[in-house]
Amino acid sequence: MFKSSVRFPELNKKVIYSNLDEQKPLKYPAKRANQYTISDILSLLPKGDKAFSTQMGAVIQVSNTWQCDVGQACAPFLSVRRADFFTPSFNPTNYEQLVNTKSQQILGYTQSSYRLINSSRRLVFEGTGFKFLIQTKGVGRSFQLDAAVLQLSLGVALLKLAVIAVDFLMLNVFPKRAIYAKEKYVQSEDFSHLEERKQEEHEREERRRARKERKKMQRRQEEAGSQEGDEDYF
């Protein structure tokens, strides 16, 4: 019979979940089962793991798992996995290869012993089987108002709704809202004519440049005319 207890003191120090007081065996697959045969446990393994386990044995981790909403009724269930291999490259495609090479250092569970018969002979006993590692684990969940408010406030802050809400309260609800409104809005000089001024300055600058260019052209023409007069004289 699988019996265990678990508590979540961070969520509720008074609540303890337990089936230690159950005296009547409840066979799997009944609800709240506490009695399992080896075949039942192996049936909870993946199909490939189960087939290979019967050939070479296995180390199997059996977890009596509680997943509870703290404060409400909760019953455990078994979660089963192989514990005699931990390499990510291990997959069902190399089962046959491991059987042929008898790589029991990687997986399986084998017990060996021997007895000396005489100085040149000994009798070896080798057997495979199942080794179960039993543990209890649990996950507790509970609604916490303060944590929910904290998460909500953080979310609102990220959405910039807090600024909008505070501004609305300061302008419409608080007693000194008139002072806040006066300080919030500051009357400034009218700068609507700045663009017109910039345009006028630009036009004046263009006219100045045009005048300079015309003067340069006139000078060049005058210099060219004077040079022609000198040539005619000589």
Write structural notes for this entry.
By secondary structure, the protein is an alpha+beta fold. The protein folds into two domains: 5-142, no CATH class; 146-184, no CATH class. The chain is 41% helix and 23% strand. The protein contains seven helices and seven strands. The chain has helices at residues 38-43, 47-56, 95-101, 145-158, 161-172, 177-184, 194-233, and strands at residues 5-7, 16-18, 58-69, 77-82, 110-118, 121-128, 130-141. It has a three-stranded mixed sheet with strand order 4-3-7. The protein has a two-stranded antiparallel sheet with strand order 1-2. α5 crosses α6. The N and C termini lie far apart (134 Å).
Overall body shape: elongated
What oligomeric arrangement do these chains adopt?
A: single chain
Instruction: Name the helicity range.
Output: 40-55%
Termini distance?
Answer: 134 Å
Q: Let me know the largest β-sheet.
A: 3 strands, mixed
SSE order: EEHHEEHEEEHHHH
Number of helices: 7
Main location: membrane
Pfam families: P2X_receptor
Family: Belongs to the P2X receptor family.
Subcellular location: Endomembrane system
Give the helices and strands, then pairings.
Blueprint: E1 5-7, E2 16-18, H1 38-43, H2 47-56, E3 58-69, E4 77-82, H3 95-101, E5 110-118, E6 121-128, E7 130-141, H4 145-158, H5 161-172, H6 177-184, H7 194-233
Parallel strand pairs: 3-7
Antiparallel strand pairs: 1-2, 3-4, 5-6
Helix pairs in contact: 5-6
